[in-house]
Write a structure and sequence with these properties.
transmembrane; 53 residues; transport; CF(0); 55% helix; mainly alpha; hydrogen ion transport; ATP8_metazoa
């Protein structure tokens, strides 16, 4: 069986690393979070905290 030269292993490693990074970047930036406009309409009700020491 023929063996691969070290430069071929390195090139294969580079290709798979770039493919992994590209896949991760595409997955990360394809998700668009919803805008926080819905939180502006809903006010958070805070009850005053009366500490009794």
């Amino acid at each position: 069986m023929p063996q691969m030269a070290p430069i071929s292993w390195f090139l294969l490693f580079i290709v798979f690393s770039v493919a992994l990074l590209l896949f991760n970047f595409l997955n990360y930036y394809s998700f668009l979070p919803s805008s926080p406009l819905t939180s502006l309409h809903q006010k958070i009700e805070q009850k005053p905290l009366n500490w009794k020491w």
